[in-house]
Amino acid sequence: MRERGFVMMWRNATRATEYLHMPPNRVVELGAQFEI
């Protein structure tokens, strides 16, 4: 069930560069991992 949820979120997520309409060399992506 967790894996299906993760796959669904991963497929629906957009890249920051696409969302912000900026060139990839102008965006820095930071992330964190959370245990569910």
Automatic annotation (TrEMBL):
Source species: Pseudofulvimonas gallinarii
Molecular function GO labels: symporter activity
InterPro entries to which the protein is assigned, alphabetical: K_trans_C
Top-level taxon in the UniProt lineage: Bacteria
Keywords: Symport, Transport
Pfam families: K_trans_C
Protein name: K+ potassium transporter C-terminal domain-containing protein
K+ potassium transporter C-terminal domain sequence ranges: 2-36
